Amino acid sequence: KHVVLLPGDGIGKEVINSAKDVLHAIAEEFNHEFSFETHEIGGAAIDQYGTPLPESTVEACGQADAVLLGAVGGPKWDNNPSHLRPERGLLGIRKALDLYANLRPIKGFKNLLHASPLKEEVVSGSDLLIVRELTGGLYFGTPSERRDNGQSVVDTLSYTRKEIERIVDKAFQAAQQRRGHLTSVDKANVLESSKLWREIVEEKKAQYPDVTVEHALVDSTAMKLITNPTQFDVIVTENMFGDILSDEASVLTGSLGMLPSASLREDGVGLYEPVHGSAPDIAGKGIANPVAMILSTALMLRYSFELEAEAKLIEDAVQSVLDSGFHTSDLQISNGRLVGTAEMTKHIV
Amino acid sequence: KHVVLLPGDGIGKEVINSAKDVLHAIAEEFNHEFSFETHEIGGAAIDQYGTPLPESTVEACGQADAVLLGAVGGPKWDNNPSHLRPERGLLGIRKALDLYANLRPIKGFKNLLHASPLKEEVVSGSDLLIVRELTGGLYFGTPSERRDNGQSVVDTLSYTRKEIERIVDKAFQAAQQRRGHLTSVDKANVLESSKLWREIVEEKKAQYPDVTVEHALVDSTAMKLITNPTQFDVIVTENMFGDILSDEASVLTGSLGMLPSASLREDGVGLYEPVHGSAPDIAGKGIANPVAMILSTALMLRYSFELEAEAKLIEDAVQSVLDSGFHTSDLQISNGRLVGTAEMTKHIV
Ligand SMILES: CC(C)[C@H](C(=O)O)[C@@H](O)C(=O)O
Ligand SMILES: CC(C)[C@H](C(=O)O)[C@@H](O)C(=O)O
């Protein structure tokens, strides 16, 4: 399997090495062969090529079986014009590879739950998966422009039926693999696009009789994620709502530095990245938490390569290293042992 | 001053009486005169007139100095086609009266903070005001329609410069009256409308040198509201982001049943309503919490009638009744006394 590595910026450059180390260990243990190729994206690409997403990066990713991405962004590029900002690289590669399904599993680690802003009795036991549509909606709809000499502006939230169908199917299938409950989130009391979304979910549900479906409004879901996060299993929603709700959900368990994500194409090719950002404040110090990157690598094995046992082994290794009390400086474990990126990775390996 | 009462549905019909009782007491105490007129909106209007917003209601509100609204909605109308749903009445009256500025102060009550899903050390001391644009954006932009024989759909997020300017001014002014900090929330790394929004905030800030301004992305704000709610003073944002973030914020302090809102026009005419809904499950039982409605009435006195002392007196009365331990069934106060809507109102009066 051929893997393209996109370290990106900040701690992305550090944690990507952890992914590689873990894959080497997996290759050895299971007799697999992974080949690697590294390319630039984000700020690093702006510095080197004058664009956040060089053609060479797109081409390499287009030929890969999967892509691992560290993180993009940093203060150096914060005041750039928008086509020269690091996150354009991210948006561009999602669209170029047609990575329509963003999966974000959010589950707390028992020994880290104390870091949650929520009371333990509220958050304990929560285990949800957000399935976010990633290549449509307000992010890519046209027109998106100034009008009337700059006196007005429009953005466009557009979806085709096919775009909604494929993400809804993905979510139903994910629910079948989990606890069989799907919450479809929309704003059907206001948006025409949400009404079509709701209709499609209703049409599809006959195909998945083992999944119970519930429709919820985005505003009320934003409340319930906080007051009752354990009520959710799989949440499916459009791009912008997914952006907001998945970030909201990511802080519930107090384990932001531990959360992976997968962005998938229909044929299973995918891009895998930590939920956390490039953390410029701690970049280059060797103290970044590699766990989100390593768990993203596990998702790659599971979703793109269908290597479930290998994925599970990585996840178990992370859990057991935490159980042994090892942790990076973003975490606290009582009676634990503070280690840097390399040592944390070594223990997991 | 002439006040139109729109009880609406469910517990709206009950708590609206509490508003009236409180206004009678204020009138007597301060020698004011308030006249009242009651009209239908929402489900009640659908039942009686076949539309959630009868012309007669719009006309009456158009002539009022202020409008008090209870709540709209209920299971009876949940499966109606969208033009016959109760919330259409709410959206319609906002637009008809040009109520562009939705203000939602969110502050916990000390003796209720224990009901928060957040840890006390996280939420304690939080006191924020969300200023939401209410008559533009995705809610009212056109086109909003099916296309290609139902194979695709669009909604439109549109704003004029003037619409953004007036809400941003409102928010700066609110910040001046409070702790002088404004967080402008957008998605400027993706949306053209957000870029214009950000530009306008930048242009305006010279006019308000006593206010410090910060720009934040909607996704990261959804996180920070939970991890660090005390960092916010005034938040200003567009309609849909405001819908999501204000609902999210409303559950932080554990006092959802206590939260008022104001929706204002440029000349000060406003509509005031509780943040909570029509609560069909407890409607008609005389047990609804009237505090959000009563505090909405205080906001009416403050914003539409400029009766600050009167508004403050109501707010102090609510606090002192809570301090005495009186509470409705949605709340718990240790060693408190459980009362119904009427008795809670009587104590506040
Ligand atoms: C960086 C930004 C454009 C991106 C998004 O909004 O999708 C990010 O917030 C994410 O969720 O991956
Ligand atoms: C009922 C609904 C249309 C409304 C909105 O989305 O504005 C409500 O959620 C609110 O926040 O007042």
What would you note in describing this structure?
- The structure is a homodimer of 349-residue chains.
- Chain A is α/β, with parallel strands linked by helices and 349 residues long.
- Chain A folds into two domains: 1-102 and 259-349, Isopropylmalate Dehydrogenase, CATH 3.40.718; 117-252, 3-Layer(aba) Sandwich (Isopropylmalate Dehydrogenase).
- Helix content of chain A is 40%, strand content 22%.
- Chain A contains twelve helices and 14 strands.
- Chain A has helices at 12-30, 43-49, 55-63, 86-96, 120-123, 161-177, 192-204, 218-227, 239-250, 291-303, 308-323, 341-348, and strands at residues 2-8, 35-38, 66-71, 101-107, 127-133, 141-147, 152-160, 181-186, 212-217, 234-237, 260-264, 270-274, 326-327, 337-338.
- Chain A has a ten-stranded mixed beta sheet, sandwiched between helices.
- In chain A, β11 and β12 (270-274) form a beta hairpin.
- The longest helix of chain A is centred in the N-terminal third of the chain and has 19 residues, at 12-30.
- Chain A is globular and about 55 Å long.
- The first copy, chain A, starts with a strand and ends with a helix.
- Chains A and B meet through β6, β7, α7, α8 and α9 of A and β6, β7, α7, α8 and α9 of B.
- The complex binds 3-isopropylmalic acid (2 copies).
- One 3-isopropylmalic acid (IPM) sits between chains B (87, 90-91, 243) and A (189-190, 219).
